[in-house]
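User: Need the bound-state model for pyridoxal-5'-phosphate:
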Amino acid sequence: MGEEMPLSRIAAAVGTPVYVYSQAALVERAAAYVQAAQQTAARCLVCFAVKANGNPALLRLLGEQGLGADLTSGGELFLAQFAGIPPHRLLFSGVGKTSAEIQQALQAGIRALHVESWAEMERIAGIAQTLQMAAPVAVRLNPDVAADTHPAIHTGGRQHKFGVNAQAARQMLLAAADHPWLSPVGLAAHIGSQIRELAPFRQATAALLRLAADLEAVGCRLQYLDVGGGLGLDSISQAAPRPAEWVAAVGEPVAQAGYELVLEPGRSLVGDAGILLTRVEYVKEEGGKWFVVVDAGMNDFLRPALYGGEHPIWPVALRSGRQRESRADHTWRVEVVGPVCESGDTLARDYELPPVAAGDLLAVMQAGAYGYAMSSNYNGRLRPPEVLISGAAYQIIRQRQTMTHLLG
Ligand SMILES: Cc1ncc(COP(=O)(O)O)c(C=O)c1O
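Assistant: Bound-state model below.
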């Protein structure tokens, strides 16, 4: 990750499991996104999807690189404000905004609320009128495109709860233009996550552009087109396009049409900048398989259990000189499993590792996104700490929970 801090030192000082992020990697990825967007479009805004990682220290770092934030709850709005990200760089997405959240967002003066239904738009209009402040709104289009990703993280198909169809989006934006308390500013789409091909993104962008041109033809000119996030990372079996390729593919047509380009990357921005460090507790052979039981469970890291997320696992510090008569090879195929009482609590299946033993440290890679953010206290387990490394120093940016957290 471009840092000089031995992970074994962090494990010794902070314990395991622990999320470890590299400041250099975060800054480098944020700068690469901003640069790619600036090279593509005269006006652009890169909004980090806070749901991927809401740690305030990370958000502050990303905000300092010029990034905005894509929010999905009042809690995330609070975090972005706490991290000092200015309101004109904040967007609020999500199908279920409560009245309290809408009020919070309007009073914070955010750039726009991304509306996902007529009912939501009516609610926003009512709250805006009560507050006597016009609400900037963008509509989230459901472009109905297929994407080769896990069904649980495909969001841009007609069958999904997200956004509205093109006809409804058009009517909503025209209605907003005529409304005294609404101001239509943009059009957005987000078709899913961990997508490793450009074609569906191009299709969604084309749908946004068609609709924007159609609206412009009747005098409703929008400020920005937001192509969402969703670019994947390389998986064990398939490479993903680089962020600059993705930005060019979705951004160039938007820029050519003269709109401000908005992007909402999450995983492709922070996923590779973090790992989950875990220690081997036991190695057991059962039913013809080897199980490596580690101290990180699905409560700490849910992606493999929830989406079948594939994460490379690297041994960090193996004790040397061990005898492993039962395994003559230098690698062996194992299931890497956690301690939670679910068979789904498996970090990797049929995975090739060098021989490891109790006490060894393993790094679960690409854990900077949707890692800590999705952790829980399931099985009475404490949520892990988070550590940020910078060069030869590190700081704990979230403490490990203590037993009192379990009391509520
Ligand atoms: C509206 C919206 N924007 C952006 C993202 C970020 O997606 P990713 O982390 O795949 O880039 C998400 C993820 O769910 C989302 O729902």
